[in-house]
Amino acid sequence: MEPRKVFINSAGRLRSGWRLVVFVLAYLLFLFLFTSAVRVVYAGAIYFAPGVRLGLYVGDVVYRLIILASSLAAGYVCARLLEGLPWRSLGLSLHAGWFRDLLVGSAIGIASLAFAAAIATAGGGLGFMFSPAGILPQVAKTLVLSGVLFVIAALAEEALFRGYSLQTLTRARLAVLGVVLTSVPFAAVHLQNPNVAQGFTFVNTALAGVWLAVAYLRTRSLWFPLGVHWAWNWALGSLFGLPVSGITRIAPHPLLQATDLGPAWLTGGSYGIEGGLACTITLVVSTLFIWHTRLVSASEEMRRLTSQENPADPNLVVSPVPQTNAGTAE
Fold it and tell me: What DSSP designation does 308 have?
């Protein structure tokens, strides 16, 4: 192979593997810059107003917004400079059908979580009762505030793992490799959460990465996986009162109060349902449903922006976009 071909592909662009490396480095750079800026602003606020302190909720929101901003900034810079693609290639523009994708994804996320809870309940592992009527105002507050946080957190993770990194490999027709390379780190970062369930936490979170990657590939847009992702977490913590990846503080007053009766291999124990077999079964079933459903599809514009390399020279001949199902991993 010629030395140039190690770096440049037939479309005259930097090869996808190198683009992925550049994206990771750009993300880390933006993460450092945005985090430093926020710290400077916060330090200044404390200096001029010593009584100012960020609460736990606001701190969580700011932390997720930093990840979101870093992911989108790095993704846009790489898409524009390395591939000559516009912002809308990242899948977060208000393209045709975006709101429907979000709504359908949200419905699937809630239904999937309900299915997992039903499996665990049928196996005698979970019991539920409604929260007392006297705390309904607190329940309403939890539903709203946790919903905002879950949307921001899910969007941040989608932009990082199903954003440019998966998209650029998909354009290189390496979607399957992209799913693996994004799902494994997605699972690895969750191993830092409290109450990790040995084995199940990594396997289920990696399966969740595949689940969400398939949701992206079906629409070539982040709105659909965003809906699936945030709604699953919201239903898990705020509706069913179960730990969200080992965390319980996000939804202090859920609609339902859950009792874990075990065994932990089914229910996930203190990590929550994501650490048990009920979740494993659900993710497999839901992934197959998303792959085959006709409820969503990719628009022609999004398919064009994500199905092939964008040639650096308009005179270069590249293979046409295959006219297959929108979810096919090229």
Answer: S
Phi and psi (nearest 5°) for 244?
-105, 100
Which residue type does 81 have? L
234 vs 144: CA distance, rounded Å:
10
- In-domain check, residue 20: no
pLDDT (tens digit, 9 = 90+) per residue, 4-20? 889 999 999 999 999 99
How many independent structural domains does the chain possess? 1
* Residue 268 in tokens: 């996930």
Q: Domain range for residue 258?
A: 97-306
Kindly list the distances between the CA atom of residue 78 and the CA atoms of 84, 128, 153, 224, 281, in Å, as whole numbers in the listed order: 9, 47, 22, 23, 37
Helix-helix angle 136-161:223-234, to 10 degrees: 140
Q: How far apart, in whole angstroms, are the C-alpha atoms of residue 191 and residue 207?
A: 14
Residue 109 lies in a domain: yes
pLDDT tens by residue, 193-231:
998 988 999 999 999 999 999 999 999 999 999 999 999
Task: For residue 163, tell me if it sits in a domain.
Answer: yes
